[in-house]
Amino acid sequence: MNNESAACFRAAIWLACSRRHRLSELPGQPSSLCHTGLGLSECHGCRYDSAMKYSNCFVPTLRDVPADAEVISHQLLLRAGYIRRVTSGVYDYLPLALRVLRRIEAIIREEMERAGAQELLMPMVQPTELWEKSGRLSKYGPELLRFEDRHGHQSCLGPTHEEVICDLMSRELRSYKQLPINLYQIQNKFRDEIRPRFGLMRGREFVMKDAYSFHADDESLMAEYRNMFDTYTRIFERLGLRFRPVEADTGSIGGSDSHEFHVLADSGEDLIAHCEGCDYAANVEKAVSGRDAPAGDAAPLTALATPAVTTAEDVAAFAGVDAALVIKTLVFCVSGGDADGAIVAACVRGDDQLQAVKLIHALGADALEMASDAQIEEIGGVTGFVGPLGLDAPVYMDAGLEAAVGMLAGANKRDLHLTGVDVARDLSRAQFVDLRETRAGDCCSRCGGQIALSRGIEVGQVFALGRRYTEPMEVQFQNQQGKREVATMGCYGIGVSRLMAAVVEQCHDDGGIAWPDILAPFSVILVSMGKSDEVLEASEDIYRQLQAAGVSVLWDERNERPGVKFKDAELIGIPLQVVIGDRGLKQGVAEFGRRGSERQEIALSAVVAASMAALSAGSGAAL
RNA sequence: CGGGGCGUAGCGCAGCCUGGUAGCGCAUCUGGUUUGGGACCAGAGGGUCGGGUGUUCGAAUCACCCCGCCCCGACCA
């Protein structure tokens, strides 16, 4: 061992030994040591062995790709023996997966504690009354898995915990002096998804970190919102992910402000619009952007016979005009909110898509359904020839149409359209709101730059809820003037098990999973080549040294052929490989290298130091 | 829930159309040979053919019903 590596080795031993003390001395302080991935699990009281022999390890790897696994993370997590399906959207987390999950959780805990939040644990079973009280029972609907206990008491499995935490706070909160407070938990959630898919990406049961903050005023709430935003940014940075925070719709949770954190991946289910000129980024459900549309020529209203020509594209082609000069009219039946049951029409340009979430917001509704032919007739329309003029229903038009002239629209008569539609002249009673879905190439509403679209996996979301829950749940406190006041609230979620899948989506190659050092279930895989006593003895020696140094190691001592061992090592994704074989042993060397690159021969005595150096360099943490 | 597809051994599949004793590869077990990138030989175990009903002398195969799974749409961490 040269001087440098010897010093490195001593330092590492010291760190390994002192780790626990340092953490207990500084509760809530993030430990840079844990960035190294060295025995991280111990930091948080997990009792996992940091060293395991492969033959004792339950890692059922598969050579074939299971036929029903669509996305790469689902395939690899199954093949590499991390997860197994129990039933639709419900999985076993096998030992390797649990180790990874615990590492993700450890980072989240550190950053949450550093941000001043406190961990608690709420029940998975919740009384349905709480959901009646918050007014969310009907809104959440069938996602909420409900059941009855033996006494006939209505219960449900918690899909989220706003109700429970508000119930708790409403009992315990008395004074403004107790505020602000941020409480979080890491716990299994259950949402009876209509369509679970993609393995861990959209399960019905999943692990989530959810945090809830309570405040005396909105200023304090927004400060915490910012704090959580920054905390999430740090968490996803530490996890080594390419991600992007984006402005988001608040969905069924409600509230004012919201950002989602998306891991960028082609397999993502969400579309994100982001500006190439500034830092504007938003989910397309919410993104606002402009476009250059061809200008129509002002003209009087004229009927145009369009026999059996119905879609906007076909009508445009038939009339020989740009699709942007056609007004596309869609008719919906509204459910939820004040307009519940109403039939409404929504218009966008023929070459734009309607973004339904935007319309839902404009209506204050819960959901929309395409109107039936009969419903269209009820409001004086004809399916295929619906237009905004003369329709007996509220008409919502995309704001981009407000000044449009010379447009082509359905005439509400069979086989007939109208040309020369002047929106300002003919549709004065329409409501103008942003309804169109942002497209790539649009111009940014902030800086005028170009908008691009990317796919993302939503792994976190922060909400400034305001009093949406605290009001109905009666979370009140006495303010400085001695008056009762309703607290204001934020909530902040991270999909922990989804994150594991998202990491795999981003970190893999043909050989399998390529975990970032800090998340790998083991840092080093020690491969014994051949079964001579010398190889096994030398391997065991290295195994013990790594163990003593606090480097988590998986020792593949199986009597398998080399190909099998390397394939498994790459598949399960252990970042560092140490190979001990008869060949090198004669020279006193082992092979050492990072998964996916060439291994180098190094002295047996240098293996531990090299491992530790590689791990600290790989994580970017100071040692 | 609507539309499409699929259920045959742990995994991947063939057989079904045209009914006649259930097959292949991988995995597993035993013995042997082998050992630097998913070995070889010999042998073995393992399947209510998703379930039910019907048609038939006879059903994995044909018909009907049910269940489950996967993909496309509305939900979301």
Could you explain the architecture of this structure?
- By secondary structure, this protein is α+β, with helices and mostly antiparallel strands.
- The chain folds into three domains: 162 residues, Anticodon-binding domain (Rossmann fold, 3-Layer(aba) Sandwich); 218 residues, Bira Bifunctional Protein, Domain 2 (BirA Bifunctional Protein, domain 2); 142 residues, Alpha-Beta Complex (YbaK protein), CATH 3.90.960.10.
- It is 29% helix and 28% strand.
- The chain is built from 17 helices and 34 strands.
- Strands 4, 8, 9, 10, 11, 12, 13, 24 and 27 form a nine-stranded mixed beta sheet that branches. A six-stranded mixed beta sheet has the order 1-31-30-32-33-34, sandwiched between helices. The protein has a five-stranded mixed beta sheet with strand order 18-16-17-19-22.
- Helix 3 crosses helix 13.
- The N terminus is likely disordered.
- The structure holds one RNA strand of 77 nucleotides.
